[in-house]
Amino acid sequence: MLLDYDRLGWLRVALVGFTAAVAAFLLLPVVFIVLLSFGSSRWLAFPPPGWTLKWYQQLLADPTWIDAALTSARIAAMAAILAVVIGLFASFSLVRGEFRGRQVLRGLLLMPMVLPVVVFAIAIYAFFLRIGLAGTTVGFVIAHTILALPFAIIPITAALEGFDKSIEDAAIVCGASPLQARLRITLPSIRIGIFSAAIFSFLASWDEVVVAIFMASPTLQTLPVKIWGSLRADLSPVVAAASSLLVGLTLCLMIVTALLRRKLST
Amino acid sequence: MQGNSSRRGSVAGLPAGSGSALPALLLVGLFFIVPVVALLLRSVTDPEPGLQNYAALFGSGTYVRVFLNTFLVASVVTAVTILVAFPVAWMLAIMPPALGSIVFGIIILSMWTNLLTRTYAWMVLLQRTGVINRALMGLGIIHEPLPLINNLAGVTIGMVYIMLPFMILPLVGTLRAIDPMTLRAAALCGASPFAAFRRILLPLSLPGVAAGGLMVFVMSLGYFVTPALLGGTSNMMLAEMIAQTVQSLLNWGLGSAAAFVLLVVTMALYAIQLRLVGARRTGGGI
After folding, report:
1. In total, how many domains does chain A have?
2. Domain presence at residue A45
3. Does any domain span residue A46?
4. Does B87 contact chain A (CB < 8 Å)?
5. Residue A162: CA count within 13 A, CB half-sphere
6. Alpha helices, DSSP H only, in B150-201?
7. What angle (nearest 5°) sits at the alpha carbon of residue B261, between those of residues B255 and B264?
8. Could you tell me if residue B51 is inside a domain?
9. Could you check whether the bond before residue A218 is cis, i.e. omega within 30 degrees of 0?
10. Which residues 62-81 of chain B have a CB within 8 Å of chain A?
């Protein structure tokens, strides 16, 4: 009866308790960081002696934090758009192509997700140093697009595999051009896949630290690089405020995703 | 399945339907394959042609210790992750959906929260004067603060935290695919819950555990951020050593050689993982 929730008996109490403990463990750092960001202690004492908004004021008054956030958003948006467009084209070929080596091609395009990021980071850094793209926005976008590509390809190919191609063929039989059929029939049908691809590729770039640490220059740094620098220097509460805003952003993204999924799938 | 239109899209001289993969192939070829191959070549040409970098890597006690420590940390993290993830995945597979969706929500929230944010939280929580030490001392469990950061304990806690979703989510799928009737049959035949667990539930979920475990192990081997922030200098891991060798010591030859070792080990383990889950289902919880 081990797979019957209602008949587990005493074992259920133990397992539900354990699951609740793990859920608390997963939630702990996220809740803690938000509480900490409102605490008045410079030394991160917890529970804090009082509550304050001054770390948020310091954060928002510091142009380097704002700059870093805007840089991150710009790079992540460009990388996500490129990854989704290039990934969409590649997915058609991966799902519908009839050629040998299709699985090899798939493996190759997904490889950036598997290879340890640090290996890619020093490889692309060395390469960009040689061709003059290190420390540039273009370099950042190219490197992040490569890392984001697998996160675009996986949901789009999954959606495309679930789409019945005969519907597209029917449109062509009825006089639509292949391009029209793809734009007006196929793309709207796989929009949930495309939407997931956009979210995941954006996050892949937005959260990326390792390549960014190598690629950053004094004039161009992303938010993770800025946080990384502050963490290595001291554990200032300003980082807690920045982190809490990121948690808020994650929550918004989760809610938007859930709502859009519900709306798109009806 | 395959209609005419997919052939129509083919570019002259290219196999049918492969044309639209060209941009991706160009991008990955030029900015992924070329740089990685160039890096690997550098390991045998920098500063001069030969295998001296590999000799230095495997001949030095310091670097061998980094290798061993990397495997030790990855093994401990994988083992703890499996032990913690299994009961949770088990419950998630059979819980009423209303209750389960709360737990799923928490897992997704933790997974999507910025990696540095989570690591920063653990740095503060695990400090000598941090909340965990204070709570334990307040409860009278310990009298001296435990060293929880800049050592194996810190890295393990921080990494298990990050890896748990990658183990739980696929494992839920494996456990849901098991037919509950097999366990009902075992109970009817008089098997004790323990025997049913050991002889039916565990063997049937083992492929999922092995695949997830291997993925966690591979990810842990090459992890950089968390070990660098929560680990100590005495137990450095390979990824941090590679970054440091290149960034601070500017020793590209040695760094490339270490990167090549990491690449070979990762790819070999990944090939085994593909065998376990089948090439179709890569990508974990996405």
Report:
1. 2
2. no
3. no
4. yes
5. 10
6. 152-176, 180-188, 193-196
7. 140
8. yes
9. no
10. none
Provide the token pair at B175.
């456990």
- A113 shares its domain with A222: yes
Number of folded domains that form chain B:
1
Residues 75-134 of A with CB under 8 A from B: 86-87, 89-90, 92-94, 96-100, 102-103, 105-127
Q: How far apart are CA B253 and CA A117, in angstroms?
A: 18
Q: Which domain holds residue A131?
A: 63-264
Is residue B266 very low, low, confident or very high in pLDDT (cuts 50, 70, 90)?
Answer: very high
Task: Tell me the backbone φ, ψ of residue A39, rounded to 5 degrees.
Answer: -80, 145
Q: Is residue B37 part of a domain?
A: no
Residues A71 and A20 in one domain: no
User: Which DSSP helix (H) or strand (E) runs through B208?
Assistant: helix B202-221
Average pLDDT over residues B171-188: 89
Phi, psi of A46 (to 5 degrees): -145, 135
pTM for this one? 0.88
Q: Are residues A189 and A257 in the same domain?
A: yes
Q: What does chain B come to in residues? A: 286
In a domain, B30, yes or no: no
Of the candidates A30, A90, A181, the beta carbon closest to that of B110 is on: A30
Which pLDDT score, from 0 to 100, does residue B16 have? 65
d(CA A71, CA A67): 6
Distances (CA, A) of A195 to A106, A160, B1, B97, B214: 21, 13, 25, 25, 29
For residue range B26-46, what is the model confidence (pLDDT) as tens digits? 999 999 999 999 999 999 998
* Residues in chain A within 8 Å Cβ distance of B114: 206-207, 224, 227, 243, 246-247, 250
Percentage helix, strand, coil, to 5, in chain A?
80, 0, 20
Could you report the per-residue pLDDT of A143-173, keeping only the tens digit for each? Answer: 999 999 999 999 999 999 989 888 989 999 9
- Tell me the two tokens of residue B51: 């295998």
For B118-164, write each residue's pLDDT tens digit.
Answer: 999 999 999 888 889 988 998 988 888 989 988 999 999 999 999 99
Span A79-88, average pLDDT: 97
What is the band of B13 on the pLDDT scale with cuts at 50, 70, 90? low
How far is residue B179's CA from residue B129's CA, in Å, rounded to a whole number? 49
Q: Is B182 exposed, middle or buried (0-12, 13-18, 19+ CB in 10 A)?
A: middle
Within a domain: residue A16? yes
**CATH code (residue B91):** 1.10.3720.10
**pLDDT at B3 exceeding the cut of 50:** no
B245 belongs to a structural domain: yes
Q: Copy the structure tokens of residue A245.
A: 């805003």
Domain extent at residue B153: 46-281
The CATH number of residue A174's host domain is 1.10.3720.10
